[in-house]
Structure formats: structure tokens, C-alpha cells
Amino acid sequence: MLDWIIKNYVEITGALLGILYLWFEIKQNKLLWPLGILTSAFYIFIFFSAKFYADMGLNVYYVVISIYGWYYWMKGGKRKESEEQSENEVVSEELPVSRITTRLALTLLGVTIPVFIVIAYVLVSWTDSPVPYWDAFTTALSITATWMLARKILEQWLVWILVNAVSLGLYIYKGLYPTVVLFFFYTVLAIVGYYRWRRDYDKQFEHAAD
After folding, report:
1. Is residue 90 one of the residues assigned to a domain?
2. First vs last C-alpha separation in the chain
3. Which among 19, 53, 25, 52 is positioned nearest to 178, based on CA atoms?
4. Could you give the dihedral angle defined by the CA atoms of residues 33, 35, 38 and 40, in that order, rounded to the nearest 10 degrees?
5. Candidate from 96-100, 114-118, 126-130 with smallest mean pLDDT
6. 95 domain-assigned
7. Percentage of the chain surpassing pLDDT 70?
């Protein structure tokens, strides 16, 4: 057992960081973003070793989008200074949870489909990925879902439920068992996250009504 832990310590550490990241995401805590950068760094190495090249590239994207999301969550929670406030006094709020619009959903679908096609083509043509189409599917949806997270859109959880469930099967196939455990928790906690964010979204309107 100890030998197995020593041999897989990088993947185990990445999995534990990933669960902690998801917990902060459910709690809408801004610390999820620096933790996401650290988790992604671990998984760039893990997926390169496993030849999941699209997932490796996805984690490079995660690093970039985490910087954007961190900035947006910080900036998005700032109200414009009101006339009653002094020049140096600014009210700060948490960035509220929002819902996706039909127009935005169609736009994201229109972006995700060609991204999937391009990634699948690259994987089939230039890599030895054992599951290029499924790898491309989860990668394309993850790109979209992470952008939605950066914008704090409720429905990002629904996309993650699908991505995590499919990824769970892929990692069982590849034998990445610590990551299998991680994505089992990801799938369950994505469901929890959706209902938690939905509750907070509904509370926003309750407070507005008061």
C-alpha cells in the first residue's frame, strides 16, 4: 500500500486538491481560483504521462481561465460608487449567481461544437490518444463550463455533471484510479453544487423583494 502511495503521490495530491477546489467552488469562495491554478499544474503532468493530451491542454487553459475568473469574481462584486459616497468609499459585494439566457446558450453551443471538431481532428491525426472523440467531447464541454464558472452562471453545474460522468468512465478505462475517485466525488458534488447555487440564486430575489 505504501509503495502504491509513493508511486502515485502526484496523482493522489492532484485528486485531493481537486476535491478541495470543488468544495470552495460550491461555497462560492474566491480561493477556488488560486487552488485551481495549483490543481491544474498537477494535472498537466498527470495527463501528459497518461497520454490524455486534450485533457493536458485543457488544464493549461484552466490556468489561464482561473486567472480571468479570479479577476472577474473580484471585480464583478464591486458596485459603482454612489453619489452619497465619498471619493474613497466603495461598496463591495459578492458577484451574484446568474442564469444562462437562450441567446448565450446558443452562442456557447455554436462555439463548443467547432471546438470539439477541431480537438477531435487534432487528436485523431497527430496523437496516440486511445479515446480521441470522448477526450475531445469532455475537453470541449469543459472549456465552455469553466468559462461559465468564471461568469458565475448556475447552469455550468449541469454541464459539469455530464462531463464528470463521462470522464469517470474514461479514467476507469485508463486505470487512473485516484482520479476515478476524484471524478466520482466531482459528479456527486456537482449535483450538490447545482442545488446549492440554485438556492442562493433564489435567495437573491427574496432579498430583492424585501
Report:
1. no
2. 57
3. 19
4. -60
5. 126-130
6. no
7. 86
CA distance 30 to 69: 9
Summarize pLDDT for 49-97 with one digit per residue, the tens.
877 777 788 889 899 999 999 999 988 755 443 444 444 444 446 788 9
Domain holding 110, by residue range, is 2-79+102-209
In a domain, 93, yes or no: no
CA separation, residue 46 to residues 14, 89, 106, 206 (Å):
8, 46, 33, 45
Find the helix or strand (DSSP H, E) in which 192 lies. Answer: helix 177-209
Contact 115, 168 (CB under 8 A): no
Q: Give a yes or no: residue 92 inside a domain.
A: no
Give the amino acid at 7. K
Alpha helices in 81-176 (DSSP H): 102-126, 132-150, 156-174
**Range with the lowest mean pLDDT among 19-33, 50-64, 98-112?**
50-64
